[in-house]
């Protein structure tokens, strides 16, 4: 275990001056696109983004990808093509949307071995399920070899990252943000009802809107 920590030390220390970022994403959402646009505005980085397309849960138009310098639909690229494009791009860092995509994970492992720091999002909460326990046991071999840093949105995700062996500077906080410009000039929504809820999210069963 200590050997794995020592190995990750060097990769983390290289995440400093970043000009090019390769993003291995799932379905690109509005708020994530806003974060990427802001990243380009603040630091003038060049972005290569692989993304899953065609999801009914995130039906955004093509304009959401205009800020991306090198956009690629994940479905149209095999593992070798993704790895080749990333190598040609020569990124300073890789940002990956978790490790559920086995192709992304293998590509990240290869690039990490070649000296490119890899940061992975982690938005799953620790619930003590058997799959999470398995991930905790396998992490030193399965995840440490591919991921330098876990980036989490909150305390419950931090608990999961900690059990995977990502603590201290190997676990970043504040992963999620909103599309501030989209809401900053919005109208106030009033209701005459004494009790009301405001829901902000996707209209999908897993969000529990029926329970609300």
Index terms:
disordered N terminus; 7 strands; seven-stranded parallel β-sheet; alpha/beta; 212 residues; globular
Description of the structure:
The protein is an alpha/beta fold and 212 residues long. 36% of the residues lie in helices and 15% in strands. The protein has seven helices and seven strands; from the N terminus they run H-E-H-E-E-H-E-H-E-H-E-H-E-H. The protein has helices at 2-13, 30-43, 79-89, 102-113, 130-142, 155-163, 180-184; strands at 20-27, 46-52, 70-73, 93-96, 118-121, 149-151, 171-172. It has a seven-stranded parallel beta sheet with strand order 3-2-1-4-5-6-7. Helix 6 links the parallel strand 6 and strand 7. The chain is globular, with a radius of gyration of 19 Å.
Number of strands: 7
Helix percent reads 25-40%
Largest β-sheet summary: 7 strands, parallel
Which residue ranges are poorly predicted, with pLDDT under 50 across at least 5 consecutive positions?
Answer: 1-8
């Amino acid at each position: 275990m200590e050997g794995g920590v020592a190995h990750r030390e060097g990769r983390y220390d290289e995440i400093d001056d970043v000009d090019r970022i390769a993003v291995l994403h799932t379905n690109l959402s509005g708020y994530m696109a806003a974060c990427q646009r802001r990243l380009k505005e603040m630091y003038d980085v060049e972005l290569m983004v692989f993304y899953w397309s065609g999801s009914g849960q995130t039906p955004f138009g093509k304009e959401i990808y205009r800020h991306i310098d090198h956009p690629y639909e994940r479905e149209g690229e095999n593992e070798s093509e993704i790895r080749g494009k990333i190598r040609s791009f020569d990124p300073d860092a890789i940002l990956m949307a978790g490790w559920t995509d086995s192709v992304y994970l293998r590509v990240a492992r290869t690039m990490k071995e070649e000296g490119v720091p890899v940061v992975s999002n982690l938005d799953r909460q620790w619930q003590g399920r058997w799959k999470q326990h398995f991930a905790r046991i396998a992490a030193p071999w399965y995840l440490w070899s591919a991921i330098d840093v876990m980036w989490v949105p909150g305390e419950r995700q931090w608990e999961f990252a900690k059990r995977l062996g990502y603590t201290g500077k190997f676990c970043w906080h504040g992963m999620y943000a909103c599309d501030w410009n989209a809401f900053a000039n919005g109208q106030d929504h009033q209701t005459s009802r004494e009790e009301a809820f405001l829901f902000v999210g996707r209209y999908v069963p897993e969000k529990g809107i029926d329970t609300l």
